[in-house]
Amino acid sequence: MIFEGVLPVLSVLAALFLAGVALMFFGVSPLAAYRAMFRGALGSWYGFSEVLVKTIPLVISGVAVGFAFRMKIWNIGAEGQIYMGALATAAAVRFLQSSSQFSMLLAMAVAAVIAGGFWGCIAGVLKARWNVNEVITTLMLNYVAIHLAEYFIYGPWRDPSSLGFPMTPPFPPSARLPQFLDTRVHLGIVAAIVLVLIFRLVIRWTRWGFEIRAVGDNPKAAEYAGIRYGRNVVMVMFVSGAIAGLAGMTEIAGLQGRLQPGMSPGYGYTAIIIAWLARLNPWGIIIVSFFMGVLLVGGETIQVIMRLPLASVQVIQGCILFSVLAFEFFRNYRVLLVRKERN
Amino acid sequence: MMRGIEKSFVGAKANSDIDLDLRRGEVHTLLGENGAGKSTLMNILSGLYTPDDGSIFIEGEERKFRTPRDAISAGIGMVHQHFMLVPTQTVWENVALGLEDQPFSLDKNSIIAKVRDIQERYGIHVDPHAYVWQLSIGEQQRVAIIKTLYRKADILILDEPTSVLTPQETKALFQTIRQIRQEKHGVIFISHKLDEVIDISDRITILRKGRKVATIPVQNASKESLAEMMVGRRVVFQIGKTLQNPGKVVLKAKDLVVRGGRGIVCVDKFSLELRQREILGLAGVSGNGQEELCDALAGIRQIDDGAIVVDGVELQGKPSREFQKKGVSYIPADRIGTGLVTGMNIRENIALRKYWRKEFTRFRFFVHWENIAGRTGQLVERYSVVNPGLGFPARMLSGGNLQKLMLARELADDPRVVLAVQPSWGLDVSATLFVRETLLEQRDRGSGVLLVSDDLEEILSLSDRIAVIHKGKLMGIVEDPDSASEEQLGLMMAGTSLAEFLPDDIPPGHVPVRAVP
C-alpha cells in the first residue's frame, strides 16, 4: 500500500535521471538545468502564478481523461476535444454578441461542453455499437478537430486587422474570464477545483460512479450485475469530452482571448500522463498537474536562460511517461533476485 | 526408484519438508485440498520450479532439474489438467511436437509406427491421423498420455485427470493407468475425489497445508480416514436432506436456443421446469452448454429462440435487471472473474447486484452507503464470511470466503430462483459442506435451485431431480435420483438420451423415470 504511493515519486525521480542524461547530451549540466527550472517556476510570485496558469487546463483535461480511464475507456482524444471546445467558444463569441458577461460566458461554456461532448460521443457510439477501438478513433479525431479549427482560423474567421496572422479577432471584454490579483490566473482555476470535487463526488458516491468503477474494475462482473455497457460508454465519453471542451473554453476565454493555432500545446496528451501518474485519484490530478505546470514553466525558463531547444522539455516529459509505464511493471510484479544454482 | 524427496519451498512455504517415494509399478496418489501443496510439489518434480531445499533421487542417483526439459530427459512426464495440445494438428503431429533430435523433415511413418506400438502396449486407442479438435476430451487426454510415453517417461504425473471426464471415460482411463502400472512405470495420481483414489491407488500420500500427513497403503485407507487426514478433523459425509414437497413452477425454459461466444449454438432447444422447494441438478461434463444456459436464464446472454418464464412472466429479451427484479439469483462458476469485483471492497461487492434498489438509493442518484454497510454487516455475520474488515478489498478473502460472500449477496433476499454453477468448485471440504448446506437450506426456505455441477457426487447428494445435458441438448430428466445409477447418468452425460434406457415394459403404476420427448 505504501509502495503504491511511492511508485509515482520513484518513477518521476527515474525520469529526472533519464532526462538528466539527455540534458548532458545537450551539453548542459542537469543539476544546473533543474535548479534553473525550479527557480524559474517557483522562485518568484510571477513564476508561481504562471505555473497556476498552466495547471488550470491540465487539471481540467486531467479530470476529463481520468473520468474515462476510470471505466477503462482510453480517451486519447482530449486534445481534439479541447480544440472543439475552443472552436465552439469562438463561434459563440462570434455569433452571440451579448453585453452581459454572465450570459455570454454561460453561452460559451455551454457551446464548449456540447462541442467537446459531441466529439467524445462519436468515439463512444462507435465503441458501443461496433466495438471500434476508442484509442484509434479518439486519436484520429484529434487531427480532424485540430485541422477543423485551423480551417476557421486561417479561413472565414481570420481577423482582417491581424496583418495576415492566423487568428480570430480578440474577444470582447464581456467574453473574457476575469483574472485575479494582477496575474494571468483566471476564473478557470475555480472551474478546475469544482470539477475535481465533482469528479470525486460522482465516482465515490453516486450510483453512476459505482457503475463506472464496476465496469472499469471487472467488465464481466458489471455485465453480470446488469450494468449496461454501451449506454455507459457513450455517457462517459460525452462527459469526458465535455470536460475537455471546457478546458478549451477556459483556456481561450481566460488566457488567450482569441482562437489561434496551437492554442493547446498538447494539454490533452499531457493529461494522459497526469491521469496515469495520479492513479486516477482526484487530489493526485491536482498535484501532478501542478508538477507538470512547474515543468512547463521551468522548461520555458531553461529555454531562455540556457538556450535549449523547446524539444528538451518535451524530452523530459517523454522520459516521465516512459518511466511511468516502466514502473507500472513493478506494480504487478515483484523482482526477485535469484542466485544461480551451483551445479 | 525415487527416494527421499525432501524440499521446503520458502516464501509461501508451499511445501515444507516433504518426503515422497515412488516405486516401480505402483500408483501413488497425492491427496490434499486445494492449496495443500500438491501442485507445487509436482511442479518441482517436473522441473517448472526449483526447490529451495531438498533433493530428488531417481534410481538412487541425485538429479537436479533446472527446466522441464531436464525432467523429461530424466523420464518424468506430466499430463496437465489442461493438456497442452495444438487443436489444428493431427495426433501424431502433436506427439512429434517438441521432440528433440529430429531430422529437418519428420519421419512420419516411424513416428506413427511408434505411436501404434505404444497404443498396442498400453491399450490406449486413438487414431494417429485424427485432428485433435475432432477428439473428445477423454481422447485428447489419451493423446497427452501417449505424448509422455513416447518420450520414454518412466514416471507419469497425472494432475486431476478425472475432473474433465465422464464416469465411463474415467473407467477407461483407470484401465490405461493399470496397464501402465503393469509395464512397471511409476504413476503419481493427483485427485481429491476419495472414491477414485481408493479405487486406483496402491499407496496414498496425504498433504495438508504444505506438509505431509502420512503415506499409507490403500488397504489401510477408508474414505473417512482419508478425509480426516486431509482436513485435519472428522468430516461428516452425510448431509441432512429432508424430503420436501415441491411447489409451483417458478422458472420455465422452453425450447431455448443460445449461442456461445463464437456464435456456435451451445444450448439447443432446451426445456426445463424448476419448481419451488426443489433442487434440480443439471449434470453434464463441463463445457456442454451449462454456463451459456445459466447466463441465458439469468438474462445476461441473449437467446436466439425460445421462452423464459419466471413466476408466470415471460422475460426473454428483457435486460438482466428485470430478471434480478423477479428474484433470479445467479451464482456463476467463475467467482473471481464474473461473480465478484475483487478490487472492490466487501461492501461494494454486496452492493454489486443490489445498488440500484430503492433502499440503497438516496436522493435518486446516490448510493446509500450507510444502508449498504448495515446490510453487509448482517450478511457477513449470517453467512460467516471471515474478513479483515468491510472496507478491505475482496481479493484479500480466501476462496471459501469469497464464495460465502457471493452466497450472501445472492441468497440474502430469498430469491425465487437460484442458479448455482459449480458452487463448491475449488473449495476445501468444510467450505464445500457449508455451500451445500446453504443451498439445501435455501431450498427449504422456498427457492427453486438449479444446481449445475460436473461432480456427480454433488449432484446425487443434493438433487431432488436430475437433468442431464450433453452438447447443449437435454438428455432427459431423472425424477428419482435414488433410482439413477452413476452408470446411467454417465451414459447420458456422454450423449445417450434417457428414452433409450427406458425398458419396454414399465411396471404399471410405477414410473421411476420420465423421458423427455
Relevant terms:
heterodimer, A: 343 residues, mainly alpha, ABC transporter involved in vitamin B12 uptake, BtuC, 2 domains, 13 helices, globular, B: 517 residues, alpha/beta, Rossmann fold, 3 domains, six-stranded mixed beta sheet, 17 helices, 21% strand, disordered C terminus
Summarize the helices and strands and which ones pair or pack.
The complex is a heterodimer of chains A (343) and B (517).
Chain A: H1 2-25, H2 30-42, H3 45-70, H4 78-95, H5 101-130, H6 134-154, H7 188-205, H8 207-217, H9 219-224, H10 229-256, H11 267-277, H12 282-305, H13 311-332
Chain B: E1 26-31, H1 38-45, E2 56-58, E3 61-63, H2 68-73, E4 76-79, H3 91-96, H4 108-122, H5 137-150, E5 155-159, H6 167-182, E6 186-191, H7 194-200, E7 203-208, E8 211-217, H8 223-231, E9 249-259, E10 265-275, E11 278-283, H9 290-297, E12 305-310, E13 313-314, H10 320-325, E14 328-331, H11 335-339, H12 346-351, E15 361-362, E16 366-367, H13 369-382, H14 399-411, E17 417-421, H15 429-444, E18 448-453, H16 456-462, E19 465-470, E20 473-478, H17 486-493
Parallel strand pairs in B: 1-6, 1-7, 4-5, 5-6, 11-18, 11-19, 14-17, 17-18
Antiparallel strand pairs in B: 2-3, 7-8, 9-10, 9-12, 12-13, 15-16, 19-20
